[in-house]
Structures are given as structure tokens and as C-alpha cells.
Design goal:
seven-stranded parallel sheet, 22 strands, seven-stranded antiparallel sheet
Amino acid sequence: MVMVVEVRGMRLEPVLVTGATGYVGGRLVPRLLYSGHKVRAMGRSLRKLEARTWASNPLVELVEADALNLESLKKACQGCWAAYYLVHSMNPRHKDFARTDRLAALNMVQAAAEARLDRIIYLGGLVPPNQPLSPHLESRLEVGRILQSGKVPTTVLRAAMILGSGSASFEIMRYLVDRLPVMVTPLWVRTEVQPISIRDVLGYLAGCLEHDEVVGQTFDICGPDILTYEELFQIYAEEAGLPRRRIISVPILSPSLSSYWVHLVTPVHSSIARPLAEGLRNTVVCEENRIRALIPQDLMSCRRVIKRILVKRQQQIVETTWMDAGHFIPPEWVQSGDEAYSGGAVITTAYRIRIKAAPEEVWAPLIRIGGDTGWYFADALWRLRGWLDKILGGVSVKRGRRHPSEVVVGDALDFWRVIEVRPNRRLLLLGEMKAPGEAVLDFRLVPLDKNNTELQMMGRFMPKGLWGLIYWYTLLLFHSWIFKGTLQGLAAKVGQPVSGGPEKFKATG
């Protein structure tokens, strides 16, 4: 006989949160922990999970697993009593995201059944009736059906546009309205939408654990306002203190063209913008509001949400962003740190400067590099490289960074990804720009004595074929100039005398 013990309504088994390093999952985990739930946070990178502020909470357990790997998913589900399914593959690595989502959902159905979960809670997209759906919405609908076809009861919450600091939808709107006083838009700008705040989404998700009457059902979740996208843009302009925007809608702009325009004007990649743009032609308004009676909460109006987001941005409080999600497995040659491991194919250039300062004094400006701070030298050329990257379909420097003075593993930093942070010792970045090879940028601080630190800046590149070699050696003198200038700029920001360098040296690993 198995006895399940509960304490004040809280079960002792954990709740599984898949996609725990994503935009929604990264905010749901601390919400559940605050409520007293035990949480098993699942992600594809344990290093990304360990970097989260809630990772050391005694109620949380971290597990590395992939929804596309059935065995790892089964292990993640074992011993849990409920699971949140917050996985989707709308990213550049998956060209057929619908097929990928289908396989992941089928794996979840099998893993949940074998673990005998009590319930699954799935956040999908609001599906308008009697309208042709975008591929993205079709996929979200299919995932919900697959999950509900399994033995474990699945609650499906269907949301329209989610408004929150750092969400892809909000960031697209913010950049468009901030930068374009006159906008030429597709006809979808007059489509009706019923947005919901991320705070209210989290409220409904958390509430599904406490209210058994929602188990196995499907609910639309929306905020109180039904607006057109044009009206939403104007509300943002008013709250941001901007003049009213002139919006001209034309019938010739397709979702494809719209996504490339969004790609150029905003930090959001076209691979993410396109599925979102395709869904904008659908009217997404709640057909029913049953969940409001079952899980009551004070729903936020769009104006109130936007005002709250702008305040949080001013206070530099952005818990998660759309950039957090995604695959995070650094190349093996980066993890090994051994050039010989790669057959000697890794090319390295390294420079150093010695500063009469303690490591923590040098670390303070280093950790602020990129984003609005810039790169301390030749910022115009960094921006030019970003524009070239953008034109070629890359992420560009406009992506910026989540916080001006804090970085954790997995954070985006312009067109780099943070793969290691050791305070006062090392900042390691993996390139995500378009290039004929794989690149890392490695900053290291070596204490020489109590008040003397050597700051090293190393670039490593794994070329892909002849074009990779040509690319590297064409830019060799340019890299030398940039590295020296960056080290001098950082030293100047530290504000202490330089005792040696910058100079080239041979890196040893």
C-alpha cells in the first residue's frame, strides 16, 4: 500500500516544469517555489539551470533532459505527481518545427503515462474558430490534442498575445513603436487581439495545481481588453511618452516580408518573427471565459501591463526574456579546451594587459561589456558587424543583453552567448553571428599580486573549410587592432595605471 502524504495541501512529490529555462518556465518555477511546491526544473542544459537565481532553493531539483529524448524525459517524470509542458521548437535550428513538436509531445504522453502522473498542464496558443490557421497555431493545436489523447489528463490553457517584459511579442511592439514614428504595416494591424499579461498567465498556470475541477479541460485565457494591434501600438506610445504614431496599412505586405522587416528593425530573429507574423492575421479573442470563475484573479488591462513593464525596465528588472530559450550545448572543442583534441584546427589569437588593480576592480567594467555599454573600443565597427550579420540573417548586436551589469550562463550578449561566468576570473562567450566557423571570445583575469591583475582577451576560431580559413586570416590584423583597443578601453574604465601591455602572447589553454 502506497501512502501519499500531504502537508497543508502540498504534496511531497515534486512538480515537473519542462522548459524551465524558457521565458514562461523561468518565471513559473519561482512562483511555484514561493507557494511551497517542490519543483523539478527540467532543461536541456544543466549549466543554464544552475545559473538561475532559484537554483539553490532547497525545494528545487534540477534535471537535464530533452523532450526529444524519450529515456531522459522518462527519468525526469519519475517520482513527480504533475507536469507543466512548456516546450516548443520555434527556433532557427528546427526547420520543421511542427514535426519536432509532434515528436516531443508523443514522448511526453508516453513518459507521463509510465510515471503515472496525476495531470499535465500545457500552455498553448488561442485558436480562432472557422479561420485558416498559421502553421504555428496549427502546431500548438496539434500538441494539445496529442497530450489530451494520452492516459494522463491534460489541462490546456490557450493564450493569445502574452505581454511581459522581455516577451517576444512585447519586444517586437516596443522596437517598432520606439523607432518608427511612421509605420507602413500589413492589414493585420487592424486585427483584433485579446492580450494577457505574463503575471496573469502564471496565475492561471499555478492555479491549475490547486483546482481539481480544471483537470483535463481546455480553457481560453485572455486579459480584459479586446483591441486591434494598432490600438495597442498607440497605447504603448502614450505610456512611453512618445508622439502618436502614424500607421498606414497596405495589402501588399505578406507575413514573410513582415517577418524580415521585424528582423531588421528589432532584435527578434526572422525565424521567430515569421510564425508570430503569420498568426497576426487571425482574430484571437476568447470564445469563453469559464476559467475566470474557477481561478479568479484581478486581470490586468493592457495599459496597466504596459505601464508596469516600462517601470520594470527603468528599474532594470527583467527576470526572463525571449532570448533565454533555445539549444545550449557549446561545441566539444570549446568544452575540452584542448586544441589538439580538434586535430589542431582551432586558431587562437591572444592579447593581455596588466593593470594595477585587484581582480574585482577589473571585473566590474568587464561584466558590463556589450549592450548599451558597448565594447569600450570601435563601437561603430561592432555595430557595422552587427548590421552585416543582420542582413545575412544573423542575430546582430541589437539583441543587446538582459541586464546591464549582470550575466549568467545562457544569457545572450549582443551576438554572443554566455557559456561560462566565474566572477573575478573568467567570462567566456560563444559566437552566434553568421560566420564560416565557430568562434569563442574568452576574457580571463589572472591575479599577479594583491593589487596587480593581468587581463587576457583570447579569440578562438574553428574554421569550416577553406572559406573559414580565408575569413580568419583576412581579419587577422583587424582582430589584433580590436583586441588591443578593447583591453586599453577596459583598463581606462578601471581607472588604475597600466603596468604592462597590451601585448600578444601564446595562450596555453
